[in-house]
Structures are given as structure tokens and as C-alpha cells.
Amino acid sequence: MLMRRKVVLQILIVLYVLLSYEGVQGEIKLSKVEDLELKKQFKLLNKPAIKIIKTKYGDIYDCVDFYKQPAFDHPLLKNQNFHPKMKPTLARTRQNSNTSATNWSSSIWLKERGCTFGTVPIKRVTKDDLIRHRRIPSPEAISSEVQFININNNSDPKRSYISSQGYKLASAQVQNNPNNKFSGAGMTSSLWNPHVEGQQNSACRLKIQKGSDILQVGWRVDPTLYKDNKTRLFVHFQAGNTHCFNALCPGFVLVNTGLPVDMVFDEISHRGDQQMAEITMFIDRDLANGNWWLLIGENHEQVGFWPQAIFTDLASFATNVEMGGVAYSPPGVPEPPMGAGCSLAVDPRYDAYCRRPNVLNDKGKTIPNECPT
Q1: Helix spans in 82-157 (H)
Q2: Which positions carry the signal peptide feature in this UniProt record (predicted)?
């Protein structure tokens, strides 16, 4: 009987350790000051909804008045003359392009097909979300030794696979030259759902940068950010010491009524598919005012923009462009897979890829280059 009690006690101790570990993963104890700060952030992010819409994946979005979206809480955006009908002046898109949601974004909604004109979809944030977001790792180091593509000659493109502060990168990068003047970049990426656990994440992204200012768009699997393991769209910006994802802090101005920046992708690639699921994405600088626009899809769907006013370095042109995969794991945790999650087969039906990469010069024209396809 005594032996049985000891065994039971040992089992309980093991269970306690395991559950405590999960508790660390899922719970963070807050001080009174932190709790007050959290409540303030909660109130700022959850704006009054004109209408509430849901996706078939269970996400709740508030259709928020364009002028009351979180972006305009930024102190530098208080007196801007932005409006819902804004159109960028871009070399690669038609001025009369439709801002309605694309077919593949419309398919995510349960009943509605997005928000009504004059409102934008903002994902409802819970207190648990905000607590969980405190575990989001710091961004990658701004300076890292990455092999690059030289756009000024016909040398073979080089790819990098490096490690930086828990991050693993498999990417191609234009040489970071302070004399570069890039007004945008774009690519098409296959969509995958790599397996991640805990605080791991895995993504594919397009990234442009100058100094400490960075813009990113892509897809990612990130339980810490999204509370699930679905493949979702993401945007991220860094302006000096400020950085955040999607609409979780003031900065990114949404104009699209039906395409949220954190939406779930309906279709995902599987190894051996004859036709891979893809996303085409662009970040382009408005030639008229310096705002950086996010465009999605073959028809250059205008999703929204990062205003020039919030940047210092990217108030002008970018000097660096990078595209490819990135994965993160906390210290002591094995790295998660990227993309297809398997060894390279050198076959687009089995490998994750980025194709049709392009970089724009300061006139908005594509620079001839030998980027990887």
C-alpha cells in the first residue's frame, strides 16, 4: 500500500511539472501596473463595431469606422487627410482597380462577404490574446550576415541559410547598399502549413528595409500570435523601436473592406499537388506621397498602407529587399520546419518556393535582375 502511494505521488509530481510547464506556456502572471496597461491596450484595440462578422474558422471581426481604426491612434496620424476612397499612385497598378475582396478572401466569411464601405475589418482581440502576445519574440537582428543577389550584374543568385537569435532564415537578399533606392518589391509564394508547437513559428515573407525601419508581408503559422496552427496572412512593421504585427498597434491603415491582414488561407499546398496554392504580394511606395502600400493578388488588390509619417528611414526609399523563409524556436527548443518541411526535391510540386521576385527602382520601374525563381 505504501509502495502504491509512492508511485501515485511520483506520477502526480510528474503531472504537476508537465502541467506547470503548460501553464507557463499559457499563463503569465501580471502585476497591477501591467494589468492596468493591458486593460488600456484592450480598450484601444477593440473599437466600437458598426457590424460584427465571422469567418468559418471562428474568427470574429468588428467592422470599424475607417476613421476610428487603431492606426489613427498613432500620434503622428492625428491630423492626416486619409479617407476610405484613397488610391495610390503606383506604376504597377491601375487607378481604377477595384478594392472589393478577391474571391479567395471572400470565401473565408461565414455569411457576410466583408464589411460595408466606410468600415474595415479588425479582428477582435481578447485579454488572453494580449497576454499571449507578450511571449512574441523580439524581431530578428537588424544587421545579419546574409548572402545576397547582385542586381547589377548577371552573377548567379546566392541563397542564405543563417541563424540569428533563435531565427533560421532561408532567403535571398539584394545587396544592402546605402546608395540603393528601391520603391517596392514583390513575389509569389507557395502556401504551406509547417508543423509548429508552443512558441515556435514558421513563415515565408517579403521584407523591405532601410536602417531601423522594416516592412514585411507574407504567410505564417504562429500559435503565439494567432492561438492556432492555421496558415494566415500577416503584416509586420518596425519603425525605430516600435514594431508589431497586423493591426495590433497604430500604424497600418486598412482600406480594404473584405481582406483582413490576419486572414486564414483556405487553400494550402500539399506535396505532389499538380497545382500549388499560392499568394502574390507587393509592397510599393506611393510615388505621390511616400506611403508604402500593401497589394495582394494578381490584380494588385489594395489592402492598406503604412503612412510615410510614421517612419524616419523609410520616409524615403528602401535600400534592402529580402524574400524567403524564416522559422523561430525559443532557446533549447528544436527548430520547426520551413515551407514543405521536407528535404529539397528540386521540384515545385514538392518544395516550397518564391517565384517571380521583382524589385522597383526609384521611378517605380522593375529592375532587371537574376533573382531566384
Answers
A1: 103-106, 127-133
A2: 1-26
Provide the grid cell at 194.
509547417
In a domain, 135, yes or no: no
For residue range 294-308, what is the model confidence (pLDDT) as tens digits? 999 989 999 999 999
| Strand ranges for 20-166 from DSSP E | 49-54, 60-65, 119-123, 160-164
Q: In what order do the strands lie in the sheet with 160-164?
A: 160-164, 167-173, 320-328, 201-210, 213-221, 232-239, 242-245
Report how many domains make up the chain. Answer: 1
C-alpha dihedral, 222 to 146 to 287 to 101, nearest 10°: -20
CA dihedral 91, 92, 94, 95 (to 10 degrees): -40
CATH code of 178's domain: 2.60.120.200
SS3 of residue 282 by DSSP: strand
Is 7 contained in some domain? no
Q: Residue 33 phi/psi, 5° resolution?
A: -65, -45
- Contact assessment for residue 208 and residue 185, using Cβ atoms and an 8 Å cutoff: yes
Q: What is the pLDDT of residues 178-231, one digit of tens each?
A: 999 999 999 999 999 999 999 999 999 999 999 999 999 999 999 999 999 999
Instruction: Give the domain extent around 293.
Output: 164-365
List pLDDT tens digits, range 36-68: 888 888 888 999 999 999 999 999 999 999 999
Beta bridge partners of 301: 296
Instruction: Give the residues across from 52 on adjacent strands.
Output: 62
Asked if residue 202 belongs to a domain, the reply is: yes
Closest-CA residue to 218 (of 172, 282, 270, 272): 282
Burial class (CB in 10 A: 0-12, 13-18, 19+), 353: buried
Say if 136 falls within a structural domain: no
pLDDT of residue 93: 63
pTM: 0.85
- Return the residue matching grid coordinates 474571391: 103
User: pLDDT > 90: what percent of the chain?
Assistant: 63
pLDDT at 104: 59
Q: Which helix (H) or strand (E) holds 360?
A: strand 354-360
For residues 118-147, give the mean pLDDT.
82
**How far apart (Å, rounded) are the C-alpha atoms in residues 290 and 287?**
6
